[in-house]
Amino acid sequence: MFPRRLSVFILRQTLAAYFGGLGFYMTDALDQIFVTTKQFLVAFLAGLFPPAWQPLATLLISAVVMVAAIIGVFATLFAITTVLERKGLGRMQNRHGPNRVGIPFTQIRLAGFGQPAADGIKALIKEDVVPVAADKVVHFLAPVVMVVPVILAYAVLPVGRNMVALDLDAGVLFFFAVGGAVELAVFMAGWSSRNKYALLGAMRAIAQMISYEIPLILAAVPVIMIARSLSTTGIIAAQAGQAGFLPAWFVFTPWGFAGFVLFMIAATAESNRSPFDLPEGESELVAGYFTEYSGFKFALFFLAEYLGLFVISGLAITLFLGGWHAPFPWLAWLPSWFWFFVKLLGLIFVFIWLRGTLPRLRLDQLMNFAWKFLLPLTLINLLTVAVWHYLSASGWRWAVCVLMVIVPYVALGRGLWGHRRVRKRVYRYAE
Amino acid sequence: MSIAAATNGKRHRLVPPPSPADGALGELLEISMGPQHPSTHGVFRMNLVLDGERVVKLKPVFGYLHRNHEKIAESMSYLGSMPYTDRLDYFCSLTNNWAYALAVEKLAGLQVPERAEYIRVITAELTRLQNHACLGGFLLQDMGASGTPLMYAFREREKILDLFEALTGARMMCNYMRFGGCRCDLPPGWREQAQRLVAEFPAFLDEFEALLNENEILMARTQGVGVLPASLAVNASISGPMLRASGVNYDIRKVDRYGIYDRFDFQVPLGEHGDVYDRYMVRILEMRESLKILRAALADLPEGPIMDPKARLRGFRPKPGEAYGRIEAPKGELGFYLISEGGPHPYRYRVRPPSFINLTILEDMCLGQLVADVVIILGSVDIVLGEVDR
Asked: Phi and psi for A245 in degrees, rounded to 5?
């Protein structure tokens, strides 16, 4: 049954859950509130159709509702993140960041959170410039091709208990398969623009994304081996409960921690974030593969980039950070979707932090890093997880696996260090 | 290394320019970087020929900001050119003023009072501090550090500009020095404020160095990139921190001892490899030396007049002759060459701009490097287009 007055209902449920008065049922209701809402909506809308059409209508309406929810929620998150990123970067740089735009014609400033609306309107009404020499069809299609696979990847991302649009048995595989399509869009954009910067940016982007996809996928494989499932919900189910005083998340194992760090580094490169933002390195290539895009098409690239960032962070949460599970049982009264978004914002903050901290790598250094450092480590991590699986749970298992993570890391790091001959220098003075 | 030891005959190239006949090249790509490129520090343009991302040929194109400064000065009174010198290197207007005033003082035989000399040293070293700090920020910006080091540097620059504003009324276009002294005396409390700044600046430098100097990405990006050997640097007439980063001991403050620089105890840091990292580090170390000079100068600042009593602002006609005044500006040797015919304006007025001459070596440093390196090599040269194009 769906309550009439939603706000009162949510408030009552929250308070009840908070004070523990009404027990488990109420907590569960709040946890499942979006699932029940969806079921209600689908049942209501499907009821408008003749009975013979109802199975098909239910299927279609359910799909549309879920797609709308994904686009709505994550586009809003994109809007909020752009402001948070600019404000966060600003604070790291002794500035304020955007804090002016609020509600128009009033004095209400909303601490700058009206900025995305203003930016969106600006992008929409801006002239859409297409270069004369551009391949117009491909130029038009590229931003669309960029956004669609990213949104497809959300289909297998569980954002809460029972909150996954498409519970595929091979969810992780599906995720990486559609993620691979982004490269196509990047190359379409770079090639069709007839701009040398765009072409160089696309060239860099393809080299970078293909190189980093390998460590990305290999870092995810140990999780699949231990969880014995390619399904995202199955992987989350494998991380339920506690292991000692810590939650049973994979990040709290030696191989899981190594895998998480490797996955996040590869994800940074995969989503073209600083310090791996070479494809759009402003100081070198103006704006990289989307140099020749303006107006709403530019905004679409921007959107796709951030949506890609969220979805890959979401996968990192699913694989290593226990998905929507609360960290401790006594915090489990907070709904599962709340935990997912808290973890997501945490990871987004890490990306912003990195961007405010590090200079950019050079192309050859980036490639060396992927092939000579990340790839061997991810392969060794596969071995580590096998050892972890076949040793019985004890202190020995921890010791062996920690060594198997640390020794290759130090050895490879030293090897690269010696090879590059990059070191601190001592300076002399005249006289 | 001395100049004589460094100069060993003709100018050579670091990497012989490859030609398609070598067969090692793929299809070449020509790109025009600038003048509307985000990281050419103004309206500078480079015509690059790339093999993949490797630079095969680089042709600098400048003159987009040409303002005819030198010709205009020939029809202006001597003093009338003083505000124009602010606009040469608009980051360091006070050192520009000083170099011009020095040339005119040589021409007219004026003596600068002691207090004015101290004020000149103080303002010049403050200028050096803010220039070098901002250069570190801009260099990191070119490396893609999203502005964080730049904003830290700008915070310190603001404090120095506040001092300039209190002293001269303007933050950037100071127009402060006069022939035979300075335009006005220090306002009350200025000296204490400057002393406070000098006392606080090392904390900023410590933070800046701790965050950046040993950053592995920064070291990997800059070490061994854009190497400029000492012999080539001397042959190409490079000056300033760029020359010292190549290991040549040549600082005009030590060589000419103009003004009262012989009274201060400071050292000249030298690089060894002549790469971008050395150029960055030499500037960081120079800031520490500038702080030493500032501390001593602010402590010893004598009382007295700030203008030579013989100096005349109106009807200023130096006797016929020629003079070349040069100083160690933050970017290198800044010189003004003047010829007087005894009239109210110079017969010939010529600027030796450090960043223009330091820029002539750009292609030699960039050949064989990647596009990403070209940007930081250009950043490490430290150019201001107002001075390059004049």
From this structure: -90, -5
**Structure confidence by residue, pLDDT tens digits, B143-188:** 888 788 889 999 999 999 999 999 998 888 988 988 888 888 899 9
Asked if B141 and A356 come within 8 Å (Cβ–Cβ), the reply is no
- Identify whether the C-beta of residue A422 lies closer than 8 Å to the C-beta of residue B216: yes
Nearest to A199 by CA among A294, A290, A296, A305: A290
Per CB-CB distance under 8 Å, the chain B contacts of A196 are 29-31
Those residues whose C-beta lies under 8 Å from the C-beta of residue A122, and which sit 6 or more positions away, are: none
CA distance A338 to B299: 61
Q: β-pairing, B28-33 with B45-51?
A: antiparallel
| Intervals of chain B under pLDDT 70 | 1-26
CB A254 within 8 A of CB A404: yes
Domain ranges of chain A: 32-112, 128-413
Interacting residues of A288 by C-beta distance below 8 A, sequence separation 6+: A190, A197, A198, A200, A201, A202, A204, A205, A278, A279, A280, A281
User: In whole angstroms, what is the distance from residue B370 CA to residue B80 CA?
Assistant: 45
Q: Which residues of chain A have pLDDT under 70?
A: 1-27, 281-284, 416-421
In whole angstroms, how far apart are CA B57 and each of B52, B276, B380? Answer: 12, 20, 19
State pTM to two decimals.
0.84
Distance CA B240, CA B92 (A): 14
Q: For A424, which residue in chain B has the nearest alpha carbon?
A: B214
